[in-house]
Protein 1
Amino acid sequence: MTSGVLDAAAGAPPARTSGGPTASDSPVVATVVAPEAGETLELWQRRLARARAVLDTYVTQAQYPFDSRPISEKPDLLLPYRGVPMQVPLRGADGTVALAGALELRQDRFNVVGDEGVHLFLSCAQAGNGEPCAVAMAEARVASAEQAARFPGVPVAFADNGLDGDAVASDGIFTTHLVPARQGFTGYHGYIETGLQVRLEGKLFAASFMILYTPVPPARFTGKVRERLAAGSLDLMVELDVHKPGHYLVHGRVDDALGRSFAFLAFNDQLEAGLREVPLQLFGKLVLDQNAQAPFTLRDIDGHLLLEDADPDRELMLTLAGAVHRTAAYPRSSFSEAVWDSEEKQRYVTEFSKDVAQAEAAVARLGGRP
Amino acid sequence: MMMRRLSMILLAGVVVAAVSSEASATNYSLWIHGRSPSFTTAKGNYTSWPYWGSSATAGGVNKKAVNWGGEDATSISGNNAYITRALDCYCTGANWCYIAVHSAGDLALGYALANSGGSTRSVRNASPASDGTCGTTGATQVGWNIKWVDIGGGAGGGSDLADAAIWSSSPLVNNLKTTAARALYDHNQTRSKILYMFAAAKGTAYSGILPGQDDEVIAYHSSGGVASWGSFCNPGDLFCDGTLTTGSGATSNGKAKWTNHTVDFRDDGEAYNHFTNGTWSGIMSVVRLDMVAYAL
């Protein structure tokens, strides 16, 4: 950390000519940075620390391509995104907390496609008199004002009866199974919000769930995956039947033979219509560094068509949940130790190295030890 | 023959060096604003600063205002072309950028980085037309040249005020709902650029809605870059799920941050709120000091 607390406590750092007001549009051209009057050794030491952190982070992470990563870098994407469990305070209409406790909301998916449904779960955690809560009203409605007239809100029934996705009857967890295609949203594309009011100790409290709905997927995964070793890495070629050409993003997760999740693979590029193969590259050095043992299992593949500059900005594909493909049993010797390289990487390392050298020189000129 | 080929290679090197020196390297400081419901900022105008404050105030080397609108009627994706235009203008070729973002600007930049940060870009000449598009040089490159990013009151994890219907439903407000904001893009995909998070804690008015510490609009779960929703606080507060740690490590209760999100400033003194007020105020006053100190 570069200690913003200290920055703020110390007041404004000395102003630099190069960082000052830009009354004209003539840019200040970066040259070798020399310490200016008022600039302290301490400030340049902090600049050097940041420059080194920026370079070190880049060099360490750029051992692998940006689309073939340790899954530890994706703490919220170990599985396809399903929404975040939330606790909503028990507040009155004026926003102030009216009762101790919270409404607890959970959903089993965020992205919903075609005939899919989503389970929404609600429970109450209160520190009051222990009186059970009840869902007084719930309604699913489109989040688009322009579409609201065409797709009016529909009542939704939450129940705690052990049926239709409600795991255990009378456990205090109320559940509904929202299926947009069967509940009036056929043809709608976008966010659907389920707002509800919960009665507790004679008062009403509000909360809402959100999902993203695509009525017709733009492409589908056929389930076929072809694999090929190339240059010390393993390419997993995932087949798609593309109905709508365009900019697609596809993500997959990989477990090793011991069941350890270790890699997150991504594709982000244009696809033409028809049967297409998307390469998800399992980078060789990543396999070796993670000490991952083949055969590998490619699992939980999700994807969408990105609609650039539009709202909603995507059409979702049906996710391939669970294990999709098991690879051959490759020995470690199949994979390369070589680090990833590219023009982009060289450009970054060159620039960040230059920044470190400039800061080191400035520290040295001010009598410090770089 | 061999000598001639070597000479040609050397000559080519001299030509490249000459071109490089003519295309002088320039660093820019881009300022990407947040939601702006009271007025739509001048889209594509890089010299308009009413969202922030006086244009004469220092904000890092060669500062540029990335005005993308910020109006409720248009979503993050709907206005994202103004972000990518600015990045194309000032962060390609020999030019490099430092970036400061506020609030929903976190979503706007993160969205661009995750979806387009590895795409092939036209190298542009930093001379913008009125719509914010700059002229091309004929060259291309992969991604943008970004050194690091400062994020004040970042809305990458959404605002609970959007969930609680404090703001009227709209395309931008829908993006700002916590579940939707976290689903909008892969927040970990920064292509190894560090995002320095500045999290403020002077909030009072909506403390019943915003979990844990907040700046009146954004709670620590978002401004601290935590990859899961929860109530996170300053050290010593017993009524939260955990403490927001400084640096890139997990919160005290083990909740990971998004990759390359590092908390550079945690408002232990509860001294800063969310609002710039057109006077470079609130948490962005701290970000501004950081830009002045480090964006050279």
Protein 2
Amino acid sequence: MKYIILLLTSFVLASCTSKNTEQTSKYSDIIIHKQGQSLDDDDVITRACADFVLSKNSVYHFFNQSQVISEIQLHNEHDILPCYSEGTLILDDKPYSWRIRAGGTGVLSSNDEVINKACSEKACSNIPNLH
Amino acid sequence: MLCIFDGVINNPKVTNKIIPNIEHGILPKVKALVLHRTSAGTAESTLNAWQSKKSGAHFLIDKTGKIYQTASLKKQCWHVGLLQSRCRLEGSCSTEDAKFIKKTLHGSGSWGSKFKKVYLNEKKKDYPDRYPLNSDSLGIELVGAYLGGSGDKGPFEKLKEPQGKSFLWLVTELLSQYDLSFKEDVYAHGSIARKKVKEGVDAFEWLKDNYQ
């Protein structure tokens, strides 16, 4: 009985690990086109936003660790801070443009799809300079 | 003149759909109106979202022109969010204010905390030295999806004709009710807070063309 429980536990753990690996490997070919961009044109904000620089690793972690949110959730529950970085990536063999904003929101877009994402401070605590 | 009983408008053009969880504390005086867009295509999706959330606005105007009053005019709604500095946007900051904003945004701390500090500094000011806050404004949401894709400066759906008609009626009545100025006391949300840049802007432009 003991062995059966151990075997089952190992099987469950193995399948969880495999699932996680699968979840964290679907984003690839991350390219950063623009860093430290600003929605506002004035000098104070533009210069402040110049510090919003993310590594490819951070982009990868952001999209893996963030949650998909609806447009209405983005509208009702999140501020849109003016600083952002953007680029392109491949998700499940499909090319997307991405944007990540200071404060922990982001978006993926293709010709026919827009996917909003948000990552809490806790969930993305390993990403420096995001929040 | 509107007939208002205990903060609720009694008029056949307005449907009472008060959602208690979006009402927060007393609204002592209405000094401004803030125009919002819902980022959703139907009134139902916004009404459903507000049922379980704390943020919302006093009115929701459907594409059909139906006006829902969703909060008492005596209560505050959390509709403004992270306010921008008015003097920075209008180029009228005192030396002290300009220094504070620059030092805060270029200083250390999280991005959220830096922009929040600027907002908290604004909160200390009186209206109209700052933009309106939840504590002195009414929020009007107009149903309309965001059409800007992944960008943050894109447009929202154009107002439908019956929606515009109701919007114009409501704004005219509220400005008269609270003795507010159309030129001075009406604001597009995207112009004053950290939201999609054009939220409420097109609606405000439409209003400018049609308000007399």
